[in-house]
From TrEMBL:
Family, similarity comment: Belongs to the HpcH/HpaI aldolase family.
GO biological process assignments: oxaloacetate metabolic process
Pfam families in UniProt: HpcH_HpaI
Biological source species: Bradyrhizobium brasilense
Methyltransferase in keyword set: no
Ranges for domain HpcH/HpaI aldolase/citrate lyase: 12-237
Residues that, per the record, bind Mg(2+): 136, 168
Protein name as it appears in the record: Citrate lyase subunit beta / citryl-CoA lyase
Keywords for this protein: Lyase, Magnesium, Metal-binding
GO molecular function: lyase activity; magnesium ion binding
Cofactor(s) the protein needs: Mg(2+)
């Protein structure tokens, strides 16, 4: 039986914005990120959380007409802050909730129920708000597959490229890495297997906490993309144009994908299921990959030209 993947809007980039800075949140769309993450967790100290919730709700309302995604990183379970966070921000215009320091699938299942009740009581579309699990410990990383399977609201998850050096995950794993050390590849490959096995195709790549090294942003993005990532987050606006470029199909990729689809379309019209092309044997698997490239390009507004139709078998 073919695997079912969870469809969701395609984002290349997500910009984190501190939730207690309303002016920053209102200005954030100008930087070109496909989605915004209003942060109520680490960037907001305890004494500012109540005011930050009001500011985030105001930002969601003010920016509700934007084509970008609107997400909130809430405080984790057992902090005593999560339900207050949700009560404030689950309103029309919210696209998703990221849960900090997620470890157990029960936390995702519980959040699913809470979001469902808020949606029903507030007249919002049932099941529309996404859940983004953010494991930040060895236990959470080990449970990545189970976290994704705990709710159909989970449509994007992370891990490709490895943990951020010095962050919670690296500390939990006892890793001493720099941003591009080869040892990090292992810790970036395993979560990709887990989240893809759960049907998640929107896989987050690695990010850097270094604000001024734009070349590093590109190199991390390119490596993460090779390892299966389809998007990445940033904490500084200057990173967004680079991330958007890295995670957009290049013109060469688009041309090659369109050519592959065209060649096999002609072959299937002749009754052939595989055909030689540029010293390579084209088959349905390669056409599926090419069609994914073209679909991603279309979703970010790139004109891919005319694409011939190819009837693909179910498996």
């Amino acid at each position: 039986m073919p695997q079912t993947f969870r469809e969701a809007r395609w984002y290349r980039s997500m910009l984190y914005v501190p939730g207690h800075k309303l002016d920053w949140m209102l200005k954030a769309p100008r930087y070109g990120a496909d989605a915004l993450m209003f942060d109520l967790e680490d960037s907001v100290e305890i004494g500012q959380k109540a005011g930050a919730r009001k500011a985030v709700a105001a930002a969601i309302k003010e920016l509700s007409a934007g084509r970008f995604g609107r997400f909130v990183r809430a405080n984790g379970w057992r902090t005593g802050y999560l339900l207050d966070d949700l009560n404030a921000v689950v309103i029309a215009g919210l696209d998703g909730v990221a849960v900090a320091k997620t470890e157990d699938p029960e936390q995702i299942a519980a959040l699913d129920l809470v979001l469902g009740d808020f949606e029903r009581s507030r007249g919002l579309p049932i099941g529309r708000i996404e859940i983004c699990p953010y494991p930040e410990s060895a236990v959470g990383r080990y449970n990545s597959y189970r976290l994704c399977m705990a709710s159909q609201r989970v449509k994007r998850a992370g891990g490709a490229g490895g943990p951020t050096p010095g962050g919670d995950m690296a500390r939990s794993l006892g890793l001493q890495l720099n941003d591009l050390t080869d040892e990090g590849i292992l810790f970036g490959a395993d979560p990709v297997v887990q989240v893809r096995a759960a049907g998640i195709i929107h896989v987050e790549g690695a990010m850097t906490a270094k604000l001024d090294d734009l070349d590093l942003v590109r190199r991390i993005g390119e490596r993460s993309k090779r390892m299966g990532a389809s998007w990445a987050s940033a904490i500084h606006p200057s990173h967004i144009p680079i991330i958007n470029e890295v995670y957009s199909p290049s013109q060469n990729e688009i041309n090659e994908a369109r050519e592959i689809v065209s060649v096999l379309a002609e072959a299937t019209a002749r009754g052939e299921g595989a055909v030689r092309h540029k010293s390579m044997m084209l088959d349905y698997a390669l056409v599926r990959t090419a069609m994914e490239v073209l679909k991603r390009a279309q979703e970010v507004g790139i004109d891919v030209g005319n694409i011939p139709k190819v009837e693909l078998p179910l498996i």
